[in-house]
Amino acid sequence: QVQLVESGGGLVQAGGSLRLSCAASRSISSAYLMGWYRQAPGKQRELVATLTNGGTPNYADSVKGRFTISSDNAKNTVYLQMNSLKPEDTAVYYCNAKYPLLSLLWGQGTQVTVSS
């Protein structure tokens, strides 16, 4: 069973930065796709960013130019660098991964709170 563990969330003022990490228990180079989603209170979970195993990123329009997804295959870790944070970025952030022959996997989530 593959596990994903997120870390790096916290409380930050508007305009600040955070870096989230997602550590996988299996080599991420074998995953088709890894990504970050978020869910704010009372809202549906939404895409933030994804990264293919070929290194192609994709971002939600709301975070383009502010967030960067990256990976370190040696550490089996995917990162989400979040700059110029806004109060509307407040949410629980979840990492996910799609490996061959496995269902889509999710981490437990990490809370990000941006104060105005």
Describe this protein with a few key phrases.
116 residues, mainly beta, 7-stranded mixed β-sheet, 4-stranded antiparallel β-sheet, 11 strands, globular
Give the helix proportion (percent range). Answer: under 10%
Main β sheet profile: 7 strands, mixed
Distance between the termini: 40 Å
| Count of alpha/pi helices | 0
Gross morphology is globular
Oligomeric composition of the shown chains:
single chain
How many β-strand runs? Answer: 11
Tell me the strand percentage band.
over 45%
As a whole number of angstroms, the C-alpha radius of gyration is 13 Å
Overall average pLDDT: 96
Structural class: mainly beta
| Poorly predicted residue ranges | none
Series of H and E elements: EEEEEEEEEEE
Characterization of this structure:
With 116 residues, the protein is an all-beta fold. It has strands at 4-7, 10-13, 18-24, 33-39, 46-52, 57-59, 67-72, 77-82, 91-98, 105-106, 110-115. Strands 2, 4, 5, 6, 9, 10 and 11 form a 7-stranded mixed sheet that branches. A 4-stranded antiparallel sheet has the order 1-3-8-7, with no helix packed on it. Strand 4 (33-39) and strand 5 (46-52) form a beta hairpin.
How would you summarize what this structure contains?
The chain is an all-beta fold.
Question: What secondary-structure arrangement, pairings included, does this model have?
Answer:
Layout (H helix, E strand, L loop, with lengths): L3 E4 L2 E4 L4 E7 L8 E7 L6 E7 L4 E3 L7 E6 L4 E6 L8 E8 L6 E2 L3 E6 L1
Parallel strand pairs: 2-11
Antiparallel strand pairs: 1-3, 3-8, 4-5, 4-9, 5-6, 7-8, 9-10, 9-11
